[in-house]
Protein backbone atom coordinates (compact mmCIF):
# COMPACT_ATOMS: atom_id res chain seq x y z
CA UNK A 1 0.00 0.00 0.00
CA UNK A 2 1.16 3.52 -0.79
CA UNK A 3 1.70 5.63 2.30
CA UNK A 4 0.08 9.05 2.65
CA UNK A 5 2.57 11.87 2.21
CA UNK A 6 3.73 14.31 4.89
CA UNK A 7 5.76 17.48 4.26
CA UNK A 8 7.52 19.79 6.70
CA UNK A 9 10.61 21.98 6.86
CA UNK A 10 12.76 24.13 9.13
CA UNK A 11 14.01 27.59 8.29
CA UNK A 12 17.79 28.02 8.01
CA UNK A 13 17.92 31.06 10.27
CA UNK A 14 20.07 29.66 13.05
CA UNK A 15 21.05 26.57 15.03
CA UNK A 16 18.41 24.11 16.26
CA UNK A 17 17.68 23.93 19.97
CA UNK A 18 15.82 21.75 22.48
CA UNK A 19 12.54 23.46 21.57
CA UNK A 20 12.93 22.34 17.97
CA UNK A 21 13.75 18.82 19.11
CA UNK A 22 10.76 18.49 21.44
CA UNK A 23 8.33 20.52 19.33
CA UNK A 24 9.02 19.02 15.92
CA UNK A 25 11.94 16.66 15.35
CA UNK A 26 10.79 13.98 17.78
CA UNK A 27 7.41 13.93 16.07
CA UNK A 28 8.98 13.78 12.60
CA UNK A 29 11.00 10.73 13.67
CA UNK A 30 7.79 8.93 14.67
CA UNK A 31 5.96 9.92 11.48
CA UNK A 32 8.61 8.47 9.17
CA UNK A 33 7.57 4.91 10.08
CA UNK A 34 3.96 5.37 8.98
CA UNK A 35 4.01 8.04 6.25
CA UNK A 36 5.90 8.96 3.10
CA UNK A 37 7.75 11.88 4.68
CA UNK A 38 9.55 14.76 2.96
CA UNK A 39 11.60 16.99 5.27
CA UNK A 40 13.64 19.94 4.05
CA UNK A 41 15.86 22.83 5.08
CA UNK A 42 14.07 26.04 4.09
CA UNK A 43 17.03 28.22 3.17
CA UNK A 44 15.06 30.46 0.77
CA UNK A 45 12.60 31.19 3.56
CA UNK A 46 15.44 32.46 5.73
CA UNK A 47 15.95 35.25 3.18
CA UNK A 48 12.40 36.61 3.61
CA UNK A 49 13.41 38.30 6.87
CA UNK A 50 17.21 37.92 6.79
CA UNK A 51 17.99 39.01 3.23
CA UNK A 52 20.26 41.85 4.39
CA UNK A 53 22.69 39.45 6.08
CA UNK A 54 22.55 35.95 4.59
CA UNK A 55 25.88 34.90 6.09
CA UNK A 56 24.19 32.63 8.64
CA UNK A 57 22.32 30.52 6.07
CA UNK A 58 25.15 28.26 4.89
CA UNK A 59 26.27 27.14 8.36
CA UNK A 60 22.68 26.96 9.56
CA UNK A 61 21.75 24.68 6.66
CA UNK A 62 24.60 22.32 7.52
CA UNK A 63 23.71 22.37 11.24
CA UNK A 64 20.04 21.59 10.55
CA UNK A 65 20.86 18.71 8.22
CA UNK A 66 23.22 17.30 10.82
CA UNK A 67 20.57 17.56 13.54
CA UNK A 68 17.93 15.98 11.32
CA UNK A 69 20.07 12.84 11.13
CA UNK A 70 21.36 13.04 14.71
CA UNK A 71 17.81 13.30 16.09
CA UNK A 72 16.81 10.08 14.32
CA UNK A 73 15.56 10.90 10.84
CA UNK A 74 16.51 7.96 8.63
CA UNK A 75 17.24 8.74 4.95
CA UNK A 76 16.13 5.17 4.17
CA UNK A 77 12.69 5.98 5.58
CA UNK A 78 12.20 9.63 4.61
CA UNK A 79 13.35 12.14 2.00
CA UNK A 80 15.67 14.88 3.29
CA UNK A 81 16.62 17.78 1.03
CA UNK A 82 17.53 21.46 0.73
CA UNK A 83 14.89 23.84 -0.62
CA UNK A 84 17.13 25.97 -2.85
CA UNK A 85 18.52 22.90 -4.64
CA UNK A 86 15.08 22.45 -6.23
CA UNK A 87 14.36 25.32 -8.61
CA UNK A 88 10.98 23.74 -9.33
CA UNK A 89 9.78 25.24 -6.03
CA UNK A 90 10.53 28.68 -7.46
CA UNK A 91 8.74 27.87 -10.72
CA UNK A 92 5.57 26.82 -8.94
CA UNK A 93 5.83 29.83 -6.61
CA UNK A 94 5.91 32.09 -9.68
CA UNK A 95 2.93 30.40 -11.31
CA UNK A 96 0.90 30.52 -8.09
CA UNK A 97 1.68 34.24 -7.77
CA UNK A 98 -0.29 34.78 -11.00
CA UNK A 99 -3.52 33.52 -9.44
CA UNK A 100 -3.28 34.53 -5.77
CA UNK A 101 -5.07 37.77 -4.73
CA UNK A 102 -2.90 40.18 -2.75
CA UNK A 103 -5.62 40.45 -0.11
CA UNK A 104 -5.15 36.77 0.73
CA UNK A 105 -1.48 37.35 1.53
CA UNK A 106 -2.10 40.55 3.49
CA UNK A 107 -4.54 38.87 5.84
CA UNK A 108 -2.18 36.06 6.93
CA UNK A 109 -1.85 36.51 10.75
CA UNK A 110 1.95 36.54 10.83
CA UNK A 111 2.26 39.27 8.16
CA UNK A 112 1.57 42.13 10.57
CA UNK A 113 2.78 40.26 13.66
CA UNK A 114 6.28 39.76 12.25
CA UNK A 115 6.48 43.37 11.09
CA UNK A 116 5.79 44.48 14.67
CA UNK A 117 8.20 41.91 16.13
CA UNK A 118 11.07 42.73 13.75
CA UNK A 119 10.81 46.52 13.63
CA UNK A 120 14.55 46.85 13.05
CA UNK A 121 14.23 45.23 9.60
CA UNK A 122 12.67 46.51 6.40
CA UNK A 123 10.03 43.90 5.64
CA UNK A 124 8.19 45.90 2.98
CA UNK A 125 9.28 43.41 0.31
CA UNK A 126 7.39 40.99 -1.90
CA UNK A 127 9.55 38.17 -0.55
CA UNK A 128 8.15 38.74 2.95
CA UNK A 129 4.58 39.29 1.76
CA UNK A 130 4.83 36.24 -0.49
CA UNK A 131 6.23 33.94 2.20
CA UNK A 132 2.94 31.98 2.46
CA UNK A 133 2.92 31.54 -1.31
CA UNK A 134 6.40 30.01 -1.36
CA UNK A 135 5.36 27.88 1.61
CA UNK A 136 2.33 26.71 -0.37
CA UNK A 137 4.55 25.79 -3.32
CA UNK A 138 6.80 23.80 -0.95
CA UNK A 139 3.82 21.77 0.23
CA UNK A 140 1.68 21.20 -2.83
CA UNK A 141 4.52 20.49 -5.28
CA UNK A 142 4.79 17.13 -3.46
CA UNK A 143 1.00 16.82 -3.30
CA UNK A 144 1.38 16.24 0.43
CA UNK A 145 -1.79 15.26 2.26
CA UNK A 146 -0.58 16.29 5.71
CA UNK A 147 1.51 19.01 7.29
CA UNK A 148 2.38 18.49 10.99
CA UNK A 149 1.48 21.68 12.87
CA UNK A 150 0.36 22.85 16.30
CA UNK A 151 -3.21 24.09 16.75
CA UNK A 152 -2.04 27.73 16.64
CA UNK A 153 -0.57 27.22 13.16
CA UNK A 154 -3.73 25.88 11.51
CA UNK A 155 -4.79 29.34 10.20
CA UNK A 156 -1.42 29.62 8.40
CA UNK A 157 -2.11 26.37 6.56
CA UNK A 158 -5.54 27.55 5.47
CA UNK A 159 -4.12 29.86 2.79
CA UNK A 160 -2.32 26.88 1.23
CA UNK A 161 -5.63 25.05 1.09
CA UNK A 162 -7.30 28.09 -0.53
CA UNK A 163 -4.58 28.48 -3.16
CA UNK A 164 -4.68 24.76 -4.03
CA UNK A 165 -8.48 24.97 -4.28
CA UNK A 166 -8.27 28.03 -6.56
CA UNK A 167 -5.76 26.34 -8.88
CA UNK A 168 -7.90 23.22 -9.10
CA UNK A 169 -10.97 25.34 -9.92
CA UNK A 170 -9.23 27.46 -12.58
CA UNK A 171 -7.32 24.70 -14.35
CA UNK A 172 -7.44 21.05 -13.35
CA UNK A 173 -7.78 18.96 -10.20
CA UNK A 174 -4.09 18.37 -9.49
CA UNK A 175 -3.47 19.34 -5.89
CA UNK A 176 -4.95 17.78 -2.75
CA UNK A 177 -5.83 20.41 -0.16
CA UNK A 178 -3.16 19.88 2.53
CA UNK A 179 -4.54 18.97 5.94
CA UNK A 180 -3.11 19.75 9.35
CA UNK A 181 -1.68 16.77 11.16
CA UNK A 182 -2.28 18.18 14.61
CA UNK A 183 0.66 17.73 16.92
CA UNK A 184 1.06 18.51 20.59
CA UNK A 185 3.86 21.04 20.84
CA UNK A 186 4.86 21.47 24.51
CA UNK A 187 6.17 24.91 25.39
CA UNK A 188 9.90 24.65 26.04
CA UNK A 189 11.20 27.48 28.21
CA UNK A 190 14.61 28.99 27.75
CA UNK A 191 17.21 29.66 30.41
CA UNK A 192 15.61 33.04 31.23
CA UNK A 193 12.08 31.66 31.65
CA UNK A 194 10.72 32.94 28.34
CA UNK A 195 9.93 30.65 25.43
CA UNK A 196 13.14 29.10 24.09
CA UNK A 197 14.12 31.04 20.99
CA UNK A 198 17.21 31.92 18.97
CA UNK A 199 16.12 35.55 18.90
CA UNK A 200 15.97 35.71 22.73
CA UNK A 201 19.45 34.17 23.00
CA UNK A 202 18.11 31.89 25.74
CA UNK A 203 18.37 28.54 23.99
CA UNK A 204 20.10 25.27 24.73
CA UNK A 205 21.36 24.23 21.29
CA UNK A 206 21.74 20.68 20.05
CA UNK A 207 25.27 21.66 19.03
CA UNK A 208 26.19 22.86 22.55
CA UNK A 209 28.86 20.85 24.34
CA UNK A 210 28.01 19.00 27.58
CA UNK A 211 29.87 21.69 29.51
CA UNK A 212 27.87 24.46 27.83
CA UNK A 213 24.56 22.70 28.52
CA UNK A 214 25.49 22.14 32.16
CA UNK A 215 26.54 25.77 32.62
CA UNK A 216 23.35 27.11 31.03
CA UNK A 217 21.12 25.00 33.29
CA UNK A 218 23.11 25.79 36.44
CA UNK A 219 22.63 29.52 35.81
CA UNK A 220 18.88 29.26 35.09
CA UNK A 221 16.46 31.37 37.09
CA UNK A 222 14.24 29.56 39.62
CA UNK A 223 11.47 30.67 41.98
CA UNK A 224 12.61 34.18 43.08
CA UNK A 225 11.22 33.46 46.57
CA UNK A 226 13.98 30.87 47.16
CA UNK A 227 16.86 33.11 48.14
CA UNK A 228 18.39 30.60 50.54
CA UNK A 229 18.29 26.79 50.47
CA UNK A 230 16.14 26.83 53.62
CA UNK A 231 13.45 28.95 51.91
CA UNK A 232 10.42 27.03 50.65
CA UNK A 233 9.47 27.63 47.03
CA UNK A 234 6.76 27.09 44.45
CA UNK A 235 7.98 24.75 41.68
CA UNK A 236 5.38 26.08 39.26
CA UNK A 237 7.15 29.45 39.31
CA UNK A 238 10.46 27.88 38.35
CA UNK A 239 11.44 27.53 34.66
CA UNK A 240 13.66 24.63 35.74
CA UNK A 241 10.59 22.70 36.85
CA UNK A 242 8.88 23.40 33.51
CA UNK A 243 11.78 21.58 31.85
CA UNK A 244 11.49 18.76 34.40
CA UNK A 245 7.92 18.23 33.11
CA UNK A 246 9.36 17.44 29.68
CA UNK A 247 12.60 15.63 30.43
CA UNK A 248 12.18 14.00 33.86
CA UNK A 249 10.12 11.02 35.00
CA UNK A 250 6.91 11.49 36.99
CA UNK A 251 8.66 10.19 40.11
CA UNK A 252 11.52 12.67 39.71
CA UNK A 253 9.06 15.51 39.09
CA UNK A 254 7.23 14.65 42.31
CA UNK A 255 10.48 14.43 44.27
CA UNK A 256 11.88 17.78 43.13
CA UNK A 257 8.48 19.47 43.52
CA UNK A 258 8.15 18.22 47.10
CA UNK A 259 11.77 19.12 47.81
CA UNK A 260 11.18 22.65 46.54
CA UNK A 261 7.97 23.16 48.55
CA UNK A 262 9.54 21.92 51.77
CA UNK A 263 13.05 23.30 51.21
CA UNK A 264 14.21 19.69 51.31
CA UNK A 265 16.54 20.21 48.36
CA UNK A 266 18.36 23.21 47.00
CA UNK A 267 17.98 24.66 43.51
CA UNK A 268 21.37 23.27 42.47
CA UNK A 269 20.25 19.75 43.46
CA UNK A 270 17.08 20.24 41.41
CA UNK A 271 19.12 21.40 38.43
CA UNK A 272 21.53 18.44 38.70
CA UNK A 273 18.60 16.03 38.22
CA UNK A 274 17.51 17.99 35.13
CA UNK A 275 21.05 18.04 33.72
CA UNK A 276 21.26 14.25 34.05
CA UNK A 277 17.98 13.79 32.15
CA UNK A 278 18.77 16.29 29.40
CA UNK A 279 22.16 14.63 28.94
CA UNK A 280 20.40 11.29 28.50
CA UNK A 281 18.38 12.79 25.63
CA UNK A 282 21.30 14.62 24.04
CA UNK A 283 24.09 12.05 24.34
CA UNK A 284 22.97 9.97 21.30
CA UNK A 285 22.56 13.23 19.35
CA UNK A 286 26.08 14.36 20.29
CA UNK A 287 27.44 10.96 19.32
CA UNK A 288 25.81 11.06 15.88
CA UNK A 289 26.82 14.69 15.33
CA UNK A 290 30.46 13.81 16.03
CA UNK A 291 30.24 10.96 13.53
CA UNK A 292 28.91 13.34 10.87
CA UNK A 293 31.45 16.04 11.71
CA UNK A 294 34.21 13.50 11.15
CA UNK A 295 32.61 12.29 7.92
CA UNK A 296 31.05 15.30 6.14
CA UNK A 297 30.76 13.33 2.90
CA UNK A 298 28.04 11.23 4.55
CA UNK A 299 25.94 14.36 5.14
CA UNK A 300 26.41 15.61 1.59
CA UNK A 301 25.52 12.19 0.23
CA UNK A 302 22.27 12.13 2.20
CA UNK A 303 21.35 15.63 0.99
CA UNK A 304 22.20 14.80 -2.63
CA UNK A 305 20.19 11.59 -2.68
CA UNK A 306 17.24 13.28 -0.98
CA UNK A 307 17.34 16.18 -3.41
CA UNK A 308 17.43 13.79 -6.37
CA UNK A 309 14.36 11.93 -5.11
CA UNK A 310 12.49 15.13 -4.24
CA UNK A 311 13.29 16.57 -7.67
CA UNK A 312 11.80 13.52 -9.38
CA UNK A 313 8.56 13.84 -7.40
CA UNK A 314 8.36 17.61 -7.93
CA UNK A 315 8.99 17.28 -11.68
CA UNK A 316 6.07 14.84 -12.00
CA UNK A 317 3.82 17.47 -10.44
CA UNK A 318 5.18 20.34 -12.54
CA UNK A 319 4.54 18.45 -15.79
CA UNK A 320 0.87 18.30 -14.81
CA UNK A 321 0.88 21.98 -13.79
CA UNK A 322 2.47 23.18 -17.04
CA UNK A 323 0.04 21.12 -19.10
CA UNK A 324 -2.95 22.39 -17.10
CA UNK A 325 -1.83 26.03 -17.58
CA UNK A 326 -1.11 25.59 -21.30
CA UNK A 327 2.66 26.01 -20.92
CA UNK A 328 3.88 22.92 -22.79
Task: Output the keywords.
elongated; Tyrosyl-Transfer RNA Synthetase; 2 domains; 14 helices; 328 residues; three-stranded parallel sheet; 8% strand; Rossmann fold; mainly alpha; two-stranded parallel sheet
Short description:
This protein has helices at 18-31, 43-50, 55-70, 87-97, 102-106, 109-117, 126-129, 131-140, 154-170, 210-218, 239-247, 250-261, 267-293, 296-324; strands at residues 5-11, 36-42, 78-82, 146-149, 179-182.
Task: Describe the 3D structure.
This protein has helices spanning 18-31, 43-50, 55-70, 87-97, 102-106, 109-117, 126-129, 131-140, 154-170, 210-218, 239-247, 250-261, 267-293, 296-324; strands at residues 5-11, 36-42, 78-82, 146-149, 179-182. The chain is built from 14 helices and five strands. The chain has two domains: 5-188 and 296-324, Rossmann fold (3-Layer(aba) Sandwich); 210-289, Orthogonal Bundle (Tyrosyl-Transfer RNA Synthetase). The protein is mainly alpha-helical. The mean pLDDT is 94. It is 55% helix and 8% strand. The strands form two sheets. A three-stranded parallel sheet has the order 1-2-3. Helix 8 (131-140) crosses helix 9.
Topology overview:
Layout: E1 5-11, H1 18-31, E2 36-42, H2 43-50, H3 55-70, E3 78-82, H4 87-97, H5 102-106, H6 109-117, H7 126-129, H8 131-140, E4 146-149, H9 154-170, E5 179-182, H10 210-218, H11 239-247, H12 250-261, H13 267-293, H14 296-324
Helix pairs in contact: 3-13, 4-8, 8-9, 10-13, 11-13
Amino acid sequence: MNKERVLSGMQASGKLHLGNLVGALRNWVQLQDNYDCYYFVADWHALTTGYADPSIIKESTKDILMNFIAAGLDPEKCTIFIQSRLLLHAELHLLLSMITPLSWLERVPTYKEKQQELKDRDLSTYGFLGYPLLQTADIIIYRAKYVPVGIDQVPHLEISREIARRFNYLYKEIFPEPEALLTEFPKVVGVDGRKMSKSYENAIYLSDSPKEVEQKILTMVTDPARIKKTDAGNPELSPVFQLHKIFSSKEEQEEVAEGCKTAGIGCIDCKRVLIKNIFRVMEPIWEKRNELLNNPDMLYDIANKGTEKANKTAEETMKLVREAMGLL
